[in-house]
Amino acid sequence: MREHLSTSPQAKLEEAWKYKQRLIDYFPLHSFWASLPGTIRIHLKGEQKLASLNELLTTQELATIIPAHRLKHSTIAYVAHEPSKTERIATIWYGDTIAIPENDLRLLSGEHRSAIFEDRSVGSVEWSSEGDLVLYWILSKEGNMLSRSAWSTPLEATKLPASKVVGFAAHKTTDSVYEHGLLNEGYPFVQWLIRIRHCCANYAHGLAQEQFDQLISLLERPVK
Predict the structure, then answer these.
(1) What is the pLDDT of residues 114-150, one digit of tens each?
(2) Residue 19: closest CA among 3, 34, 4
(3) DSSP SS3 for 103
(4) What values do phi and psi take at 92, rounded to 5?
(5) Dihedral angle sign, alpha carbons of residues 44, 35, 104, 183
(6) Mean pLDDT score across all residues of the chain
(7) Minimal CB count within 10 Å: which of 46, 114, 194, 212?
(8) Helix (H, G, I), strand (E, B) or coil at 66
(9) 43 forms bridges with which residues in the sheet?
(10) What is the Cα Rg of the chain in Å?
(11) What average pLDDT does the segment 153-170 reach?
């Protein structure tokens, strides 16, 4: 593989990182791809750079950016403010936190995308000055996950910047099919869900984990 990357014209282009990501899905050389430089495009302080997966795995905080135009049909955008109806050609990020726009996330291999978010939870969510939605992911397995099974939508409770929104589908993280669902932990219904989860986990009031799993499964379609 090293020989191929050193001789292939596609691996020498400016956008070579995209080609490398396509190769990852076909050639599962885990440690090789994780340490290979220039496989993931990141944004930082108005500039675009390339990084390896291993570099991102040790980054304490990572931001993902959902562009305003993608949210124009989303409840969270309409409740918070009038969403943008125009699509910008590229996302420009001036923040001090390493960021990956959603369009670039879609180009990552399932292996790399899952590895980036496997040990992360949402620390905060906020609107940028351009109307994009920015999700800040921190290295922590102690997030308020409500569901993370292999056959359902990943659901996490966190504080959202629109108090009247129950939840919405963000972008793919650890699952290759389902987008990561975010529920507003400040919303009464979600607070009730969190209390039910606690009761089921402790077998209180005759409840069991299976009942909570069934309850959460009913939320998958509404969140999408």
Answers:
(1) 999 999 999 999 998 888 899 999 998 777 888 866 5
(2) 4
(3) helix
(4) -115, 120
(5) negative
(6) 87
(7) 46
(8) strand
(9) 48, 99
(10) 19
(11) 88
